[in-house]
Every structure is written in C-alpha cells, then in structure tokens.
C-alpha cells in the first residue's frame, strides 16, 4: 500500500515536468496549422482573382461575338437587298428580250415586204422605161428618183413624171413608199429595242459583278467570322474550364482548411482529455497523499491516545469556523464510554443533537475532497479549507455536495441522519489539522 502511494506521489511530481516540453510542441503544432490555413486562404484569394479576370475575359469575348454577328447580319441584309435588285433586273431583262424578239420579227416582216415591193418596183420601172425611155434616159438609172428627198427641182420633175405615169404607177409608188416607211420604222424599233436590251444587259452585268464581289466579300467575312468565332468560342471554353479548375482548386483548398481545422480540434480535444487525465491523476495523487498523511496522523493519534497526550505545538492559526447545524452540542472531544460498544474510546469530534433531515452547513469555505460512506462514520463529507485544515461531517442521511465542488461558508452540504455507528439522528463534526483531530470547541463560534 505504501509503495503504491509513493508511486502515485512520484507521478504527481513528475507530471508537470513531463508536460512542459509537449506544451512547446503543441504551440508549434497550432502555429504550423494556423500558418497552413493562412496560406490556403491566400491561395483561395489568388484563385478568386484569377477567376474574376477569366470572367472579364469571357464577357469581352462574348461581346466580340455579338459585334461579329451584328456585322454578318448587316452584310446578309445588304445581300438580300442586292438580290432583290437582281431579281427586278432579271424581270426587266426578260421583258426587254421579249420586246427585242417582237422587234426582230417586225424587222424580218418589213424586210420581206420590202423585198416584194422591190420586185414590183422593178416591173414598174420596166413599164415606165418603155414609155419614157427616150425622155428619161438619163434619169431612170437613179434608183430612188421617185421618192421624196427634199430637192425642189427633183420634186417638180418627179411630180411631172408621176402624172404622166398614170394611176397604176402612182399606186405602185405609194405602196413602195409605205413599204420603205414600214421597213425604216421596224428597223428603228429593232435598233431601239436592241439598245435597251444591251443597256439592260450592261446593268445586269454590273449588278452581277457587284453581287459576285459582295458574295465573295461575304464569304471572306463569313470565313473570318467563323475563324474568329471558333477562336473566341475556344477561348470561352478554355476560360470556362479554367474557372471550373479554379473552383475545384478552391473547393480542394477549403477541404484542406476544414481538414486542418479538424486536426486542430482533435488536437485540442486530445490536449483537453490529456489535461483532464493529468489533473485527475494529480488529484488522485494529492488524495493519496492526504490519505497517507491521514494514516500517519491516525497512527500518531493512536500513539498519542495510548500515551494520553496531544501536541499542539507548531500548529498555524485555523480559519474561522462557524457552527455547522442549528442543534445543541452534546458529546464532546476526548475519551468517553462508547454508547454502542460500552468501552472507553477516544471521541475525535463534537456531536450536535438534531432532527432527522435538518440541514448541515459548511463551517468554512473550501473544497469537498471526500463524499463517501465510511465504517463507523456512515455517510461522510470532508471539506478542505487550505493550510492543512479540514472539517468532517458524519452520519448524514443525504448528501448535497459532490467531490471537487467549491463550497462557501454557510452553504448546505448535506442533511442530518443516523448512518454508521449511531444511536439516533445527530451530526458528528470534526476539525482536523494535517489529518489530526482537534477539539472543535476550541475553533467554533458557538
């Protein structure tokens, strides 16, 4: 038993030393983990700045796409307008070509009639030549002398010959003149229609050339837009992937921070439990030491009891103790005839007569160091008041304090009972110094 007590005391002395070095290691652990958390947070801030920059780039690329699409739509609208012009020109060209065909038919008919009229003219000339060959010998070789040409002399002579030729010749001449007029009109119409056709063809050719240039420009613009769109889309996709990667990195960093914080909490819990264990072991060691001292004091007390002497030399001033109950004091401190066993025994305390269940008050402030049932004492509470002074309350019917509790003077810590070796309800009260009983009447304010 004594060997075990010495081991516990030795552990209690060594525990503070054993925890001095881990304390520094624990501080280093927390500092390292906190530094890691700060670094992770800085990385998160950097990734967020990168993410914001990527978002701005993406918005700029999307705006560029919108501008390119607007340009393409503008060119498409212009091409539609040009195509409507071409359609109208083609309709016009078709109408002109129809007019040209009709004019060409009229020209052919007029030429055919003119050819018929030419045969009649030849016949008329032969007939007239026979009649006026001698008179008009020098004139009949002029092929168109019968037609008006604005010359007064020729017109006068022509009128004379017409009158001479007679009605038949006049009819033939009129028909010939009409044929020439129709032929000239048809030729003019054909030439005018042909000119219109050529002009329309020139306009259409120019429009088609413009259209070809526009289509080529549109094709080049479409290619450039497609290329730019692909580049912008690729950049947008790359930025989106980069943002996703950054979000994943941020999530990973947050998980790392959570893991580090969990490590810190686990370490704190381990330290707390270790501290509780250390305190518990220290308390056990302290209680063991008190028990050891109590055993020493009891042995010394037994020796003193056999020798009939009690040494108060060197005892420091005790705290001020107040009466623990309302009842009157009875059996006092010292030798007496034991009420149960009937022999003379030393009575280490002061008994107070009370009723069952009366409250028991702490005689002074202190810490409860024992709450248990002890042989002879019954239900017992011991309060440590510091400086080696303790008070004991025995035969309790019920506890109202727990081990390790801090109690104030006058605080109810239990209730009067008759547990243990007792002949009735009362409080057995002791005052002890270093575990050695002292006469309570010397220290109580009754």
Please give a structural write-up.
- With 446 residues, the protein is an alpha+beta fold.
- The protein has two domains: 311 residues, no CATH class; 128 residues, Glucose Permease (Domain IIA) (Distorted Sandwich), CATH 2.70.70.10.
- The chain has four helices and 15 strands.
- The strands form four sheets. Strands 2, 5, 7, 8, 9, 11, 13 and 14 form an eight-stranded antiparallel sheet that branches.
- α1 packs antiparallel against α4.
- It is rod-shaped, with a radius of gyration of 69 Å.
- The two termini are 40 Å apart.
What is the secondary structure topology, with strand pairs?
Layout: H1 2-18, H2 20-132, H3 152-165, H4 167-307, E1 321-322, E2 328-329, E3 334-337, E4 344-347, E5 350-353, E6 359-361, E7 366-374, E8 378-384, E9 389-394, E10 396-399, E11 406-407, E12 412-416, E13 426-433, E14 436-438, E15 444-445
Parallel strand pairs: 1-15
Antiparallel strand pairs: 2-5, 3-4, 5-13, 6-12, 7-8, 7-11, 8-9, 9-13, 10-12, 13-14
Helix pairs in contact: 1-4, 2-4
Indicate the mean pLDDT: 79
Report the total helices: 4
SSE string, helix = H, strand = E? HHHHEEEEEEEEEEEEEEE
Span between termini: 40 Å
Secondary structure: helix percent:
55-70%
Helix and strand content put the structural class at: alpha+beta
SS elements, strand count: 15
Any idea what the shape is?
rod-shaped
Radius of gyration: 69 Å
Spans of 5+ residues with little confidence (pLDDT < 50)? Answer: 1-21, 134-140
Strand content: 5-15%
Number of domains: 2
Biggest sheet details: 8 strands, antiparallel
